[in-house]
Write a structure and sequence with these properties.
Layout (H helix, E strand, L loop, with lengths): L6 E6 L6 E6 L5 E6 H5 L8 H23 L6 E11 L5 E12 L5 H14 L1 H5 L5 E8 L3
Parallel strand pairs: 5-6
Antiparallel strand pairs: 1-2, 2-3, 4-5
């Protein structure tokens, strides 16, 4: 069974001086302003495709990691995942790197089991798979919340 989620962006003007609004249609959580400047220079209270990708990746990774841990018999108490997405215009606009940082409290797990589960989540998360064309996706995973 497939589940569909949708968002819509309305854009006005050219790339450099134009602006748009991205609306989360499925969840109806809001409409957010977007501009080229917010994407390539300073956010100034606006979002970007890369920030939206970061949110999706952090969320998907956390879900995948919690499932892998539970399946292995280790229910996590807390997982904190941060995704940083680098947007570059060098050599043409592209996402050059994604850095995942995860800290988690997982009672009864060894460092080795934790590292294996963290890597499996990175490789198995559907958003990671969708972003496979990104040059570099790194993972910094540690037990314990800082």
């Amino acid at each position: 069974m497939a589940v569909t989620r949708s968002a819509r962006t309305a854009w006005n003007g050219d790339l450099a001086s134009g602006s748009g609004q991205t609306t989360f249609e499925t969840s109806q959580i809001g409409t957010f302003d977007v501009t080229w400047r917010a994407r390539a220079e300073a956010a100034e209270g606006k979002t970007s495709p890369e920030e939206l990708i970061a949110a999706a990746h952090a969320t998907c990774y956390s879900m995948a990691f919690s499932n892998i841990l539970k399946t292995a018999g280790h229910t996590p108490e807390h997982i904190d995942t941060r995704a940083e997405v680098d947007f570059s215009t060098d050599g043409g606009a592209h996402i050059s790197e994604i850095r995942l940082t995860v800290r988690a409290d997982v009672p009864g797990i060894t460092e080795e089991e934790f590292a294996e589960a963290a890597q499996a989540a990175k490789e198995g998360c559907p958003v990671s798979k969708a972003l496979a064309g990104v040059e570099s996706i790194t993972l910094d995973a540690k037990l314990g919340v800082e």
